[in-house]
Amino acid sequence: MTKRHENCTCAASRRTARCVCYIIPEFPRPALEALRQPLETGRTTVARANNHVTYPARVQLIAAMNPCRCGWLDDPGRACSRAPKCAADYQSRLSGPVLDRIDLSVDVPAVTPADLALPPPAERSADVAARVAAARDLQRARYAAGARPSGAGAAPPVRTNAEADGALLDQVATPDEAGRRLLVEAVDRMRLSARSYHRVLRVARTLADLDGSEAVRRIHVAEALSYRRPTLSPASARRSSSR
Ligand SMILES: [Zn+2]
Q: What's the 67 CA to ligand 1 centre distance in angstroms?
């Protein structure tokens, strides 16, 4: 979407909406930064000298990265001679504003030979899919029943928490008192931006929906906060062991 798009039609861009992208820090910085607008607004604007067009671009971003370029940061016997600086350099390719727009960050430790001998997970994919479908039904019912974006008469209807803006999340995702206290503390301690605050609310609302809980409780806020990744520092880079 960052190349020339004078001939791009709305039909073509609709096909790209709601797609899944997969990125790693090997992409050029301008391409990664160009994700900021679609991740924030679900739209992308292409500006040219004689044209200015906005396309729908609601994407679900799924990204993976190694902790460093060589990929052996946690293994002193194999890590390259530049560790841990190579990790700091590599991870800094994802800027703070891009990280701020990523809701769920999970460290994935390398698979060990002992892991390969473990039995398969108890919960089947079909069971997880059923839980997700139930949570989405809850959300559709909530927004169909009256929760609407504030002051947006012409805005498309909201069907899921992912589509709810900050004002709407304030209506439907305000946590209980214990959850609210935790969130206020976390905003201060983790130096969360206003954007992060609402993104935590959105994830906490979704976790409550997966639990079948009407109220957003402290446990949902705590879990949502655990998925937020602060801007990476060399120390956090050392902790990361995803490969
Ligand atoms: Zn390295």
A: 9
